[in-house]
Amino acid sequence: MKYLTVYSSKTGNTQMIAEAIHQIMPDGSEIYPVQQAPAPDGYDFIAVGGWVDKGMPDKLTADYMQRIQGKTVGIFMTLGAYPDSDHARDSMQKAEELLKGNTVCGTFICQGKVDPKLIEMMQKMTQDNPDHPHAMDEERKGRLAEAAKHPNEQDCQNAAQKFTEIIAAL
Q1: Whether the predicted model's global pTM rises above the 0.90 cut
Q2: What distance in Å separates the CA atoms of residue 46 and residue 160, rounded to the nearest whole number?
Q3: Structural domain of residue 124, as residue ranges?
Q4: Total structural domains in the chain?
């Protein structure tokens, strides 16, 4: 079998998780940032991941996911929200929908630090409109502070363990 790991990473979060997953893949497995990824056709198993943007995989990841047809796939993503939140579940569901026609045999999602430019935008948004749904409040500040600690070594171990189980089941 040929194995491929493809990822999109804006702040390094998803790349960290991709590298942890790639480390447990069989010898000869390949890993690429999505911008350099080969066509998915020649692979039997694809681990594909990105970061959550507006409740969806980021555009580069979403575009690549839509190119995958008739494959066995594992999905991994990072996001600023809590990984057990409704937002995380909805985001993963949308990722799975992009992979219709494939066999999704497992998923992994964890928190990751949020792009400082996005935090700055939310702070400005709060000044302009304190009632905006994405305005900075105490809950959001706390979540962003927690997200800034991730992904950590435990997240990488958890991703590697999840994908070890996925591959063992193939």
Answers
A1: yes
A2: 14
A3: 114-148
A4: 2
